[in-house]
């Protein structure tokens, strides 16, 4: 296994962000479908899609294949900000705890705590890109006269600041942070814990390679999808809300459950998991390979 303790701290941020960008390129279409599914049927609007597959087919047929990558620049910007921060902070926290433990791996609770810290930091830094991504992805579902017509994430951010004020870029930050401190312990801490169990303790895998990475990332991806989706839905509704529509995250949650039922909290679970699962797999596959390359060619290990 690659020892990242000897890596300079900046490397953990750069390698984490790069892995996130590469993973996002692979899964961007499912992220757009997830957003459309979550917003379908909101309030009095018509429910446009019967399933994730139906949404994928209709979007491709009615709007064209490349519309599946609408908001891609925002997704990349989100990875550069959010994932760079969360993975960098998480890895450096894990290395710090490992040093405090005299070289022993962090225990389960310590892994979860490192994930929470990394997630919270990443959520604050990445919220402007998150707002931009949600706006760009959902724009085409609005009536023509209500569409904002953003061309890319940078133009979206510029117009949001100009038309709605700088604070709008951090709209829904409370829900974003809550989601991050729920998702990241399950995803990052869960991956580290599963990898340690599968490889070092249970010896289910003989080598530190592809099979181990896939099994560990799927374990964390399934769990974090279930626990974080309700928070993600509330966050999405808040970021798309008109001024004064909701008093806050808890008001949004109450309205959603009253109007659409408890199970609406897991609406779009399939595309959400199909994004979280593959994105988690790709992120850690890329990250593990980038770590190996960095150790070999930069650190000369």
UniProtKB/TrEMBL annotation:
Solcar repeats: 11-96, 106-197, 208-293
A single GO cellular-component term on record: mitochondrial inner membrane
PROSITE patterns in UniProt: SOLCAR (PS50920)
Compartments it resides in: Mitochondrion inner membrane
UniProt entry tagged with the keyword NAD: no
GO biological process, one term: transmembrane transport
Protein's name according to its UniProt entry: Mitochondrial 2-oxoglutarate/malate carrier protein
Organism: Blastocystis hominis
Higher taxonomy: Eukaryota, Sar, Stramenopiles, Bigyra, Opalozoa
């Amino acid at each position: 296994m690659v020892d990242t303790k000897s890596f300079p701290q900046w490397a953990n941020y750069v390698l984490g962000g790069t892995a996130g960008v590469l993973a996002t390129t692979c899964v961007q279409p499912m992220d757009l479908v997830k957003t459309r599914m979550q917003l379908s049927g909101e309030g009095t609007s018509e429910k446009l899609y019967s399933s994730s597959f139906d949404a994928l087919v209709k979007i491709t047929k009615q709007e064209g294949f490349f519309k599946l990558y609408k908001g891609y620049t925002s997704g990349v910007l989100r990875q550069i900000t959010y994932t760079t921060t969360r993975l960098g902070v998480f890895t450096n926290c894990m290395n710090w705890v490992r040093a405090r433990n005299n070289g022993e791996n962090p225990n389960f609770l310590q892994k979860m705590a490192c994930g929470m810290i990394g997630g919270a930091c990443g959520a604050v830094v990445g919220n402007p890109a998150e707002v931009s991504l949600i706006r760009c992805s959902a724009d085409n579902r609005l009536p023509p006269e209500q569409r904002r017509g953003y061309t890319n994430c940078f133009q979206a951010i510029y117009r949001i600041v100009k038309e709605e004020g700088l604070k709008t870029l951090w709209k829904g930050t409370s829900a974003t942070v809550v989601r991050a401190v729920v998702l990241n312990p399950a995803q990052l801490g869960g991956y580290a814990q599963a990898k340690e169990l599968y490889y070092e303790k249970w010896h289910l895998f003989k080598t530190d390679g592809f099979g181990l990475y896939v099994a560990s990332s799927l374990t964390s991806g399934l769990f974090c999808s279930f626990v974080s989706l309700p928070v993600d839905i509330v966050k999405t509704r808040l970021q798309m809300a008109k001024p004064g529509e909701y008093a806050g995250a808890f008001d949004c949650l109450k309205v959603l459950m009253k109007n659409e039922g408890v199970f609406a909290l897991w609406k779009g679970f399939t595309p959400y998991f199909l994004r979280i699962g593959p994105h988690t797999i790709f992120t850690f596959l890329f990250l593990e390979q980038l770590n190996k390359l960095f150790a070999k060619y930069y650190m000369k290990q």
